[in-house]
Design brief:
With about 600 residues, the chain is α/β, with parallel strands linked by helices. The chain contains 22 helices and 17 strands. A nine-stranded mixed beta sheet has the order 3-2-1-4-5-7-6-8-11, sandwiched between helices. α1 packs across α10 and α7 runs antiparallel to α14. It is globular, with a radius of gyration of 30 Å. The N and C termini lie far apart (about 70 Å).
Length: about 600
């Protein structure tokens, strides 16, 4: 049985133990940092704690990273502060893509409690411009004033110098730090009664997507000094980009994966950009702004796209910009069509497709999460159907994987990974779509996190990856031709009759009775006239097809393909169950009333 190079990476005991240890360490450290919020009690309400804890955690991480070269940077600053190239020279001195020229550190700030506010501001202003840009997004300046006025600024900064808040890279790796950021955001979102899931995709889901995205890409997995690009149009805190990079480096340390992303929320954008900066990536590739109305990467293409965009959310605020771009046709992102204004997730799908490289330039692959709506919503000729039509008729869809319910923090509904590629030509996937029903492959959590009651264990990640890579049919893997999802919607007319029962004619042609008008969906693989002769004429011999109204549509009725009929219980068995329940109730009632 054929296996991809990537299919087993998340299986095996050693990897599982490392993952469990990592998870425990992250949860413990995040909890300790979050406990600092106790010092905010009385000044802040619980749902406001994150507005202080998040930016301070980021600042403290920068502080710990720069600690080893702090004195060298201060010494260099004295000699280069008036030079035009000081930024480059100071980065060299810090050994990082950022630096701080203030004499203060978190520890040194504690030496002068009386001037804590002025000194802390001096410290923050000492950061390089790229860090100051991040801090501005947190809107943290007002929090400094509040804490200073209420007399808790010194206390809170002191708490961040204790061992529980030691965020030095020797203690907390970059991967762990990314997890900690997201765990704190999750706790903050829960206390704020917000959607944690809009910022946070479970890591096991990302790992599965990464497995499939990189499956059998030999350049990535075994090439030397290969550079590739990856893009997330709704990047949140950058978790997807980080996991993609981390696991790729586990396979091939010589491959460079340049991460690009755009995020609307200021706070999560700041976390993402900080995380990229901390890891030594080019943080300038992370842009803020609304992807749908203000694409910061217009005209750019990428090797990979990985995303979990918001679904079930309206795009009325972006409507004018989106509709203006759609009028440009395929010169813009929305040439195939527009979804209903109540749900913008297919706009992110079209954005992802627009970022694919041409096949002659190596092509691209996409892994993107959607709910069930994009599979079937919209009739033939509607925007969603036209989008599916474009994707399937251009043979862009490789696979759709149904995930278990209750694996996301903010929703328990059915979710699906769509896998797209424009590199199918000449492969066994050409003209084919694979559907994998992994809905029942999960482990129950001992304790729910929001709506997350289930996990996808590493063994299941490996199994789903294998099913995808083997590309064979099984009980939970089915393979279809792209045309199997298409149909022609035909309009069936019946003649209008007058009082004597004769058809009403106009220029010798019978006129349709709109009250009797009906439609039929004829599978693309079936001849329309043959279908009409078999399914319509025996019941309506005077019917005809108005061919001018015929439209081709596409839908992917995923659950129908995996439906299993279960015979109902025999009536005698049901009666016995009812009698048994009645008997139990009679006994219980007798006890209650002392009979």
């Amino acid at each position: 049985m054929r296996r991809g190079r990537y299919s087993g990476i998340y299986s095996g005991g050693k990897g599982r133990k490392r993952s469990m240890s990592l998870s425990a360490n992250v949860s413990e450290k995040a909890a300790l940092i979050w406990a600092i919020a106790d010092k905010l009690t009385g000044v802040y309400k619980p749902h406001e704690y994150g507005e202080v804890i998040l930016p301070l955690t980021v600042i403290r991480r920068f502080d710990c990273i720069l600690a080893d070269t702090k004195d060298a940077v201060l010494e260099k600053f004295e000699t280069v502060k008036n030079l035009p190239m000081r930024d480059v020279l100071l980065r060299n001195a810090s050994g990082k893509a950022f630096y701080n020229t203030s004499k203060f550190t978190f520890e040194r700030l504690l030496d002068d409690p009386d001037n804590i506010e002025a000194n802390f501001r001096d410290y923050l202003n000492g950061f390089s411009e790229n860090v100051r840009d991040i801090l501005e997004k947190f809107k943290f300046d007002g929090q400094i004033t509040t804490m200073a006025n209420k007399g808790i600024l010194y206390i809170v900064i002191k708490e961040f110098t204790t061992p529980k808040a030691n965020l030095h890279p020797d203690v907390i790796s970059n991967l762990e730090m990314g997890y900690i950021f997201e765990e704190i955001i999750r706790r903050f979102s829960e206390s704020h009664n917000e959607d944690a899931g809009q910022h946070y995709t479970p890591r096991e889901v990302i790992q599965l997507m990464v497995n499939i995205l990189f499956y059998d890409d030999n350049d990535m997995l075994s090439g030397n000094n290969v550079a590739k690009t990856i893009y997330d149009p709704a990047c949140g805190t950058g978790g997807m980009l980080s996991v993609a990079e981390e696991y790729l480096h586990q396979l091939n340390a010589s491959t460079e994966l340049m991460a690009f992303g755009q995020e609307l929320n200021d706070q999560t954008f700041a976390i993402c950009k900080a995380d990229m900066l901390i890891k030594g990536n080019n943080a300038d590739f992370i842009k803020d702004g609304n992807t749908l109305s203000d694409d910061q990467f217009e005209g750019q293409t990428f090797d990979y796209v990985l995303s979990n965009p918001p679904f079930g959310r309206e795009w009325k605020n972006e409507k004018a910009a989106v509709e203006a771009e759609s009028k440009r046709g395929f010169a813009g992102r929305f040439g195939p069509g527009l979804p209903a204004a109540s749900d913008g997730q297919m706009l992110f799908l079209l954005t992802a497709i627009s970022k694919m490289k041409e096949p002659k330039d190596g092509g691209s692959r996409i892994a993107i999460i959607h709910n069930g709506s994009p599979l079937f919503t919209g009739d033939a000729g509607s925007g969603p159907s036209e989008i599916r039509k474009y994707i399937l008729e251009n043979d862009l869809l490789e696979a759709i994987i149904a995930l278990p319910n209750d694996i996301f923090y903010n929703t328990g509904i059915a979710t699906y990974i769509w896998v797209l590629s424009n590199k199918k030509t000449g492969t066994r996937r050409e003209g084919k779509v694979q559907l994998i029903n992994a809905n029942s492959l999960y482990e129950k959590r001992r304790k729910a996190l929001g709506n997350k009651r289930n996990d996808i264990p590493e063994s299941v990640i490996a199994e789903i990856t294998r099913l995808y890579g083997d590309f064979v049919e099984s009980e939970i893997s089915k393979i279809f031709d792209t045309a199997d999802f298409g149909y022609t919607k035909i309009t069936v007319e019946r003649p209008l009759k007058d009082e004597n029962g004769q058809p009403v004619l106009k220029k010798g042609k019978p006129q349709p009775d709109t009250a009797l008008r009906d439609t039929e969906n004829v599978p693309l693989k079936e001849d329309i006239q043959t279908y009409f002769d078999r399914e319509v004429l025996p019941f309506a011999p005077d019917a005809w097809i108005d061919e001018k109204k015929s439209k081709v549509g596409y839908e992917i009725p995923f659950t129908r393909y995996f439906y299993k009929y279960e015979a109902p219980k025999p009536s005698a068995e049901i009666m016995q169950e009812i009698l048994a329940i009645e008997s139990e109730l009679d006994g219980a009632l007798a006890e209650v009333f002392g009979a």
